[in-house]
Amino acid sequence: MPQVNKLRTAQPGGPGGDPAPLSSARLRTALTVFFALDGFLFAGWVVRIPAIKQQTGATASTLGLALLGVSAGAVITMTLTGRLCRRHGSHAVTVVCAVLLSLSIALPAQTDSVLTLGLVLLLFGAAYGGLNVSMNSAAVDLIASLRRPVMPSFHAAFSFGGMAGAGLGGLVAGGLSPTAHLFALMGIGLLVTAVTAPVLLRGRAAPEPEPVPHATEQPNVTDVPRRRVVILFGVIALCTAYGEGALAEWGALHLTQDLGAAPGLAAAGYSLFALTMGIGRLTGTALLERFGQTRTLVAGGSTAAAGMLLGALAPAVWPALLGFAVTGLGLANIFPVAVGRAGALAGPGGVAAASTLGYGGMLLGPPVIGFLADWSSLPVALTTVTLLAATAAALGWAARNATNT
After folding, report:
1. C-beta separation of 273 from 247 below 8 A
2. Does domain 22-206+220-402 have CATH number 1.20.1250.20?
3. pTM of the entire structure?
4. Beta partners for 21?
5. Which residues pair with 12 in a beta bridge?
6. Mean pLDDT across the chain, nearest whole number?
7. 147: helix, coil or strand?
């Protein structure tokens, strides 16, 4: 194994005046809070998309173009965040991006046209993309020190945060305007960041050289260039994140527009998806330790493909909700496994590359769904989630020689 990072605080107290070790448990808790906040804020935005669509007078295709602003902002930022993490530290970048995300979430409710919506979503996407790369980079460093595959637990926090954000959105959708709701989320985000940031900023990982695979350390990847392996895991992440983005930004609209669900029940659809995904991720470490990465990837992709086929084509609300729940269970651990593996192979650069591809799928998926919905129908467009989940399962099997199991 490569030499793992030692987690330290900036406070004196070790022998000879050296910094004293920061509790891994405290640092893990702080990172978990940021993952949960990310999911909470993102879900709070997506459950208000139907109201903001009506406010701006957008069609399905023009809304898809506006949502492309999130994609563009995130992908541009993700390509730069790996470098920023190496230069300034992933913890500091995480805090800055959390502040920017909290501030930018209030902007979409202030727009009255598709053009202005797209412009403010560009800023929102930039903060969202930077936060996701920096958080995952910090998590990879912590996992190296813990020597356990705990990445799914961080992504479980994201899912439960999303469930809480969607649940709150469903409760207030009928009585609170998007402006008041998103301003409240801004305040919550800034408060949580202010409380949690000091722990993250005190704990930092000692610099470590770019990891180089050795025959005795990574016996299964010595015959495959690391860049190619990282891209493979990035594509796996893309295929599954596409489904997360589709359900986040089109799931509620599918339930209301195609199946006649009330706004509160439609918002609960994403909340249910996030709940089952969170439950799946809570068991992710145990699954990885018992069954290994390859079986986890293949089983997850296959389950998600079946679930989304039901969710997209069911003729009534309740079978569709069941399909959303099964999809959440299937997708749960694929993304964290893919990003964690890329980070283990190539450090922050690997996390940035895989995350750019992965979150690119989450953010590019909704515009694609919008165009396909105009061309055909929203249920048919959502079946592309099934296709990509099945692709992820196939690629997971193809990646079996690039994993340790």
Report:
1. yes
2. yes
3. 0.73
4. 8
5. 19
6. 81
7. coil
The encoded tokens of residue 347 equal 């450090």
Chain centroid to CA 2: how far?
27
Tokens of 277: 């995904």
> How far apart are alpha carbons 251 and 229 in whole angstroms?
32
> If phi over 0 gives left and psi between -120 and 50 gives alpha, with beta otherwise, what is residue 148?
beta
Quote the CA–CA distance of 198 and 29 in Å, as a whole number.
12
Distance CA 379, CA 59 (A): 16
Q: How many helices (H) and strands (E) does the chain have?
A: 13, 3
119-177 residue pLDDT tens: 999 999 999 989 988 998 888 888 877 777 788 889 889 888 888 888 888 788 778 88
Contact 204, 89 (CB under 8 A): yes
d(CA 343, CA 192) in angstroms, rounded, equals: 27
Question: What are the residue boundaries of the structural domains of the chain, listed by start?
Answer: 22-206+220-402
Which amino acid makes up residue 32? T
Given a contact cutoff of 8 angstroms between Cβ atoms, the answer to whether 118 and 64 are in contact is no
Res 272 pLDDT > 90: no
CB 277 within 8 A of CB 331: yes
DSSP 91: H
DSSP conformation class of 7 = E
Cα-flanking dihedrals φ and ψ of residue 204, to 5°? -140, 155
Residue 11, H or E segment:
strand 7-12
Residue length, the chain?
A: 405
- If we measure between CA atoms, which residue out of 158, 154, 180 comes closest to residue 337? 154
Helices (H), 89-150: 90-104, 114-146
Tokens found for residue 320: 């569709």
- Three-state SS at 204: strand
Strands (E), 144-197: none
Order of strands across the sheet that contains 204-205: 19-21, 7-12, 204-205
Which strand (E) or helix (H) includes residue 17?
Answer: none
Helix (H, G, I), strand (E, B) or coil at 175: coil
Report the alpha-carbon distance of residue 353 to residue 367 in Å, rounded: 22
